[in-house]
Amino acid sequence: MSQEFSFAFKKTLPIMTGFLFLGLTYGIYMNQLGFNFLFPTLMALTIFGGSIEFVIANALLKPFNPWLILFLTLVINSRHLFYGLSMLEKYKATGWRKLYLIFGMCDESFSINFATNVPKTVDRQGFYFYVTLLNHFYWVLGAFLGGISGSFITFRIKGIDFVLVALFLVLFISQYQVKANRLVALLGVMVGLFALFVFGAQFFLPLALLLMVIILWFAYRRETQNELNE
């Protein structure tokens, strides 16, 4: 076992527990919607988008709208654009691994690869690769186990469709607990409610996300301009 793999495994152990549990829930959720274990496993393997996979699972039960799915994916995962900019220097010399590192970028992999001080005895490119690979593996394994175990559940689990709402509630609370993010978190609630009442339940989600992106972009531009003026 290489030093890079061992070091990456130690760093990703906390992620493993969370991903296995959440992936297990996702697999069971997909099974409850009527899909066998192949669907959550292949979606986890090829999409690897976390919350967007829950959204797509529900969308599969409705008339297929690829443009809506594309838009939701771009908006929900738009933060990855900033992750990518932050990792340009670190991923510059990764060679054949670069495409997979781009595909496998998630919040947890970004946090570890960006913040970890890699020892000189450990190859950085190998460490980045194994962190991404292990986190991806944990998520796929969790989804697979959830899909398999879900097939043995002969009764419908009431409230499991609330898992996506619960996920976003946890994310909201974690954002609100950080003092610097409270205004943004509250702004998200207000924009969401506004979009729901104005545009209706069918279209409020993509339009609320679009409004949030526009508002935050203008706020960022204004803050940048103020810094330049100072």
UniProtKB/TrEMBL annotation:
Chief location category: membrane
InterPro entries found in the cross-reference section: Brnchd-chn_aa_trnsp_permease (IPR011606)
Taxonomic path: Bacteria, Bacillati, Bacillota, Bacilli, Lactobacillales
Coiled-coil ranges per UniProt: none
Localisation per UniProt entry: Cell membrane
Keyword Cell membrane: yes
Organism: Fructobacillus fructosus
Protein name: Predicted branched-chain amino acid permease (Azaleucine resistance) (AzlC)
Domain of life: Bacteria
Keywords: Cell membrane, Membrane, Transmembrane, Transmembrane helix, Transport
Membrane topology note: Multi-pass membrane protein
Pfam families named in the record: AzlC
Homology family: Belongs to the AzlC family.
Transmembrane helix as UniProt keyword: yes
